[in-house]
Model the fold of this input.
Amino acid sequence: MRELIAITDVTHMWGDQVCIAGVNKDLKCIRPVIEGGVLVWDLLRGGKPVIFPGAKVEFDLTPTDVTPPHIEDATFDPDTVKSRGTFGELHWEQLLRSICFKSVSEIFDGHLENRNVPPGTNTRSIGTVADVRLNRLEIDDRFERRTLRMDFEDATGKAYARLPVNDLAFLGFFKEQEISALGKGKAELAVMTALTSAQRVYLRVGLARPTEIGDYEEACWARITGVYTFPDNLNGRTFADFDW
Done:
């Protein structure tokens, strides 16, 4: 079925593999997937980005088996993707505002505990919050995989600590700042200053696929899949404009 999707997320998973999500005209969240995973090259046409947050993209979607909380999945053929333009900044923010939840807890129907949701939980796996307060941004180099982490409070005042940031363009933006600022400490400060100077910040918060981490049981761990500021700190740039 052909369906027009407003892209809300392009997140980095590992290597060249990414995850994408968006909403249709009824504001239903859809996560287009491919067997074996979506690669960054699937986001391009003629070497130019087509699938990125704020883009309008037409997909040929096919229903697929889903496992809660990842109920948004639908398969697609990357060869059928068609660009249908992009949102201007005003309409892009209006879209984000229209799909906001009052809190992170509301996104996951109160099931989020200790930054995760058990596999099979009857809830959704992704949503948007606005009016957040950003408290900390830091690079975590303690493990094999370098991770950018964020502390924030949602509009209810509930605090969330050390959530990984997987927004592909935002990771590129941070790396750009790290190079220009000559170090991660200065980059952390520069990016936090840019974020807290913005008039409005929206976060997309999603759940990863079931994973065992350390001594924890298998769980769907929360992560930040989109960081969007108004005015736009990226000045209209997409993931393709950065060395992420």
Remarks:
- The chain has four helices and 17 strands.
